[in-house]
Amino acid sequence: MADLIVGLQWGDEGKGKIVDLVAKNYDIVIRSQGGHNAGHTVVLDGKKYALHLLPSGVLNPNAINVIGNGVVVYPKQLIKEINGFDRDIKSKLLISDKAHMILDHHILVDQAREILRGKNAIGTTGRGIGPAYADKIARVGVRMGELRDIDRLMDKLAHYYEMNKGYFEYLGINTPDMNELRKELEFYRDELIGNITDTTKYLWDNIDKNMLLEGAQATLLDIDHGTYPYVTSSNTIASGALTGSGLPPKALEKVIGIAKAYTTRVGNGPFPTEDLGSDGDKIRKQGHEFGTTTGRPRRCGWFDVVAAKYAITLNGCDEVAIMKLDVLDGFDKVKVCIAYEKDGEKIDYFPSDLEGVKPVYVELDGWDGSEGVTDFDKLPENAKKYIEFLEEKIGCHIKYVSTGPDRNSTIIR
Ligand code: GDP
């Protein structure tokens, strides 16, 4: 049976910390969507590692790590990540033969298209994720299992480049040198072939083990249910984790939703509770809200109950973790958005189009000194009230409250 950890906002909620906290309880840790646009830092034996593609089970020497069919894999990055560890990672790693591969041209297309979009840029990380998913849906993608027969794969790619010649020219991109490409693909094969397998069957065969599905990006970036088109190219929600792993819906036991005590967003797109004033700056500064993967400053604002309730329902959350409560230390007042106003009307659901939506706030008294607290009763009174207020409004049990980056700075209720 599987548990899922999923971000409830626009990403960077601190999923890494909760995964780190619970990963030791699982035999199998699975990534089911996204690519190396995800990213968190983990500390192992005092050394820091940036994980982009590898599941967080690498922290546990006994866990099997699965890169599921729904992930898009950039083999170059994966090999780099594997080799970055002092210890053996490969013997515990399985890569779906159905997972699609990112090749260098996907990255070039991604970056060229983003430039062409001008002021309508989506704010992608430029890592080829979108174009690789687009090829998958257009049924012209290449899958990891195809590394088993390089001749056939080369024929397929030659046809692909021929078909896309005009488009590549328009974008100002060269098609790759086919000899170089073959060498590259042979390198990927030699490095990874022993890990490529039918992971769907593996998960079915091990259904009685404890599995953790590790979500990447977050609910409001879901390709269908997020703030389209300012979204990622995969289904980030619970149902996407099933599609992306091949696990049947009833294998899902518990869904843990992760949200910050406030809200952030990277890149363009609607963000009703964004604070463009000094409060937003203060959150950014206190929360070190700059992207792990790109270094971009994150847009910051207040907790949005409407969005959180939407995300909790979409994912069927059983419990919620509220992260980075300590970042709100030192505010006189904190705001929480409890409804939206659209065209002069008050609404309490997350509409398909956020255009013209304004937040309706309530103000609560602030607090100081929540940092590092590990016992709910020892939190400052107003911080306790804040968590209880959120819990009542979102209608889901807040099981974890995080009060600092350290694994120990966590309240479990
Ligand atoms: P993820 O992609 O969802 O894992 O999130 P990120 O890794 O981008 O963001 C999490 C960052 O916040 C990391 O640098 C964590 O060390 C840090 N962090 C996590 N929880 C807390 C917390 O409760 N308080 C503070 N101050 N930092 C935290």
What does this structure look like?
With 413 residues, this protein is of the alpha/beta class. The chain has 2 domains: 2-76 and 202-412, Adenylosuccinate Synthetase, Chain A, domain 3 (Alpha-Beta Complex), CATH 3.90.170; 100-195, Adenylosuccinate Synthetase, subunit A, domain 2. Helices cover 30% and strands 22% of the residues. The protein is built from 12 helices and 20 strands. The protein has helices at residues 15-22, 75-83, 104-116, 129-137, 150-163, 165-171, 178-192, 199-205, 238-243, 278-286, 305-315, 381-394, and strands spanning 2-7, 28-31, 40-44, 47-51, 64-67, 72-73, 93-96, 100-101, 196-197, 211-214, 252-260, 263-265, 299-301, 303-304, 319-323, 333-342, 345-347, 358-365, 398-402, 410-412. The strands form 5 sheets. Strands 9-7-5-2-10-1-11-15-19-20 form a 10-stranded mixed beta sheet, sandwiched between helices. Strands 14, 16, 17 and 18 form a 4-stranded mixed beta sheet that branches. α3 (104-116) packs across α4 (129-137). Bound molecules: guanosine-5'-diphosphate (GDP). Guanosine-5'-diphosphate (GDP) binds next to α1.
